[in-house]
Amino acid sequence: MTLSEIKKAREESGYSYEEIAKRSGVPFSTVQKVLGGTTTRPRSDTLRKLATAFEPGSKEPFQRQGTYTIDDYYRVPDDRRVELIDGVFYDMAAPRNIHQLLIGEIHFQIASFIKKNKGSCIPFFAPADVRLDEGADDRTMVQPDIFVVCDRDKTRSKYTGGAPDLIIEVLSPSTRKKDMTKKLHKYTDAGVREYWIVDPDIGRILVYNLENDCVVSIYSFGEKVPVAIYDGKLEIDFGDMPSYITDCYDENWKLVEDKILWV
């Protein structure tokens, strides 16, 4: 199997990185790097071993995916970061530098606006737990990259209980499909008011106004993007990002792979 075929098999099976490691015998850290996109050219013997994880009867099958609950989530070791969606565990691979830089800058602009205007909403960034439907769904706990909660009654010491008003996800190779499909549906059903998907590879932002029949607006890096929950009074200025972010892109706002930065 090729790397792309293995990634597709993983998506179809719902296996976590830990489960793939157990089924294939490949160390967990290697599985995380290969399937998370950190290692782009894995060795052929590693690919052969990874492929065995998806062979029928290769090892004891994992039967519980789809049945895990919040109780199981809290049993996960603290040094392992996961999300739980509809009873399925998803491992969170270590993000790329550009991912973290964008999160930091976007969160900074939101937090600065709230502080300047003496707002009551609370801006969070990952890792922070969100239980989208505390009353009805005990099989989902997510960790959005950035989220804003305006109803402080939803905040707990360990997690947020209920739908945030705004959620922003910055895409990574390992989370792209989940963020654009599963999470979009979960956030919509839970009552999230506004959902952004920031694609750092092509410099694009998709803004879903979930309060307004899921109207979608598309922006590019270089533009100011209005925040609907603040009636556009807050704009995230992607055209005024620090040089350590803009240096990662060419003139068309396409991410330059493996560029040596900040020299």
Distance between the termini: 39 Å
Tally of alpha and pi helices: 8
Structural class given helices, strands, pairing?
alpha+beta
Instruction: Indicate the mean pLDDT.
Output: 89
- The strands making up the biggest β-sheet line up spatially as 3-5-7-8-9-10
Helix residue percentage:
25-40%
Total beta-strand segments: 12
Q: What is the chain-wise order of helices and strands?
A: HHHHHEEHEEEEEHEEEEEH
Assembly annotation: single chain
Uncertain segments are 58-63
Question: Main sheet?
Answer: 6 strands, mixed
User: How much β-strand is present in the residues?
Assistant: 15-25%
Give the overall shape: globular
Gyration radius (Cα, Å) is 19 Å
Give an overview in words.
It is a single chain. The chain has 263 residues and is α+β, with helices and mostly antiparallel strands. Helices cover 30% and strands 19% of the residues. The chain contains 8 helices and 12 strands. It has helices at residues 3-13, 17-24, 28-36, 44-51, 70-73, 97-116, 176-190, 243-246; strands at residues 82-85, 88-91, 122-125, 129-131, 146-149, 159-161, 166-170, 194-199, 204-209, 215-220, 224-226, 235-237. The radius of gyration is 19 Å and the shape is globular. It starts with a helix and ends in a 17-residue tail after the last helix. Mean pLDDT is 89; it is low at 58-63.
